[in-house]
Amino acid sequence: MNLLRFITAGSVDDGKSTLIGRLLYDSNAIFEDQLQAMRRASRFSDTDTPDLAILTDGLKAEREQGITIDVAYKYFSTPRRKFIIADAPGHVQYTRNMVTGASNCDLAIILVDARNGVVEQTRRHTYLTSLLGIRHLVVAVNKMDMIGYDEEAFYRIAAAFKQFSNQLNFKTIHFIPVSALHGENIVQGSVHFSWYQGPALLQYLEEINTEDDHFADAARLPVQWVIRPQSDDLHDYRGYAGRLTSGTLRVGDAVGVYPGGQTSRIERIEMYGKDLAEAEALDSIVLHLQDDIDVSRGDIIAPLSAAPVIGQELKARICWMDDEKHLIPGGKYLLQHHGKKVRCVVRDLVDKIQIDTLQFVDAQDVKLNDIATVGIKTASPLALDLYADNRSNGAFILIDEMTCRTVAAGMVLECS
Questions:
Q1: 309-415 has which CATH code?
Q2: Strands 274-276 and 172-177
Q3: Rounded to a whole number, what is the largest CA-CA distance in the chain?
């Protein structure tokens, strides 16, 4: 059973939390104690249906304001698939929350209020989704019940969305009319959508294939731990443990250890105590090499035929997350890439995105929720990929050395 991670995003009051609550409620993914607690806290409708948004709007402040503030993660499964849902805030001031929630997702659901159509926040969330490398998009046109299930209105919204999204880098975009409040076209279809011939939302999520996105990228194994048991029974044991973030590795493959560049071949691949002939993306494995070479935590093991870029000069796009300090040229930080941390300096600010208009403007400084293009110089070489080529190996975070706070999430645009 494969796993699908997806995020929901949209304008305020588009019904994101209600849609997720409906998915959980109608797929019987709520425990009885959760259901009872939700009913006690709910505002009931005429149909005695609980306020499903409470399932994700867990903070007291969220419930009081009727908005999503934090990223809420929910887990559920059907007989066909497992799911992890991230419910992201719609407000522009919570851009960093959306970036955090979307960073590991394979698919995004963009909600559009059928009464309002495509609005500024719709374009912003869609752009951010594309920027973060999510290649599969579902546009859920919600609250169709409030416009009389108007077929022509649905297709007008779809056409308007396509007009601006065609320039963005998505593999698939699918449009689904829904009413989250009434549970129509969420888990089951509805007679009100007899004109819609596609699957209900959950059926589409169960069927879409996103695994190829991970397998298509070159293999990358960030070393998390060098295993040396130091016991009499295993005195020669040396394994390199980590999670294969992309691609496939096989016994006998010629590999390099980067950024150092030492070479060897894969002798064994272990997973849960068993030997494998090959490992695939997202497998947690222990790798054994034929040669005793210098391998440390934070190194990247990759095929010789598809090596990462080794460099110290980066051009990157970052989302600034620190609400106390601004980023200014010359700022010094720790850059963490997988398990490796190196000192770095942000040498220049190239530009930043005007989040309301999605236009690039000059950047004098970068503050909370800003998305900017910067130049970074690291103290030692890193083994990277461009984010557009490999999301997992092209991402990093910046950390304040004094406070140990994560101040930015970054995506590599160039490396030399």
A1: 2.40.30.10
A2: unpaired
A3: 75
State in words which class domain 3-209 has. Answer: alpha beta
Give tens-digit pLDDT for 190-200. 999 999 999 99
Closest CA to 132 of 159, 87, 101: 101
Beta strand spans in 221-299 (E): 221-222, 225-227, 239-243, 248-250, 254-258, 262-271, 274-276, 278-280, 284-289
Q: What residue ranges do the domains of the chain occupy? A: 3-209, 216-306, 309-415
* pTM of the model as a whole: 0.85
Nearest of 360, 323, 396 to residue 93 by alpha carbon = 323
Whether residue 202 contacts residue 186, with contact meaning beta carbons closer than 8 Å, is answered with yes
Say how many CA atoms lie within 13 Å of 88 toward its Cβ: 31
What is the token pair recorded at 383? 């083994």
> Are 56 and 87 contacting, i.e. CB atoms less than 8 angstroms apart?
yes
pLDDT at 354: 82
Q: What is the pLDDT of residues 98-125, one digit of tens each?
A: 787 888 899 999 999 999 999 888 888 8
DSSP three-state, residue 294: coil
359 membership: H or E segment, kind and range? strand 359-361
The span from the CA of 132 to the CA of 103, in Å, is 6
Q: Is 1.20.120.450 the CATH number for 216-306? A: no
CA distances from 35 to 21, 29, 51, 181 (A): 11, 10, 11, 17
CA atoms of 242 and 290, how far apart (whole Å): 18
Distance CA 333, CA 397 (A): 10
Tens of pLDDT, residues 8-61? 888 777 778 788 888 888 777 776 666 666 666 655 444 455 666 666 655 444
Q: Please, what's the b/e burial string for 224-257 (b: 16 or more CB within 10 A of its CB; e: otherwise)? A: eeeeeeeeeeeeeeebbbbbbbbbbbebebebbb
Domains 3-209 and 216-306 share a fold: no
Give the model's confidence band at 181: pLDDT under 50 very low, under 70 low, under 90 confident, else very high: confident
What are the angstrom distances between the C-alpha of 179 and each of 29, 38, 92, 182? 19, 21, 25, 6
Closest-CA residue to 315 (of 347, 282, 285): 347
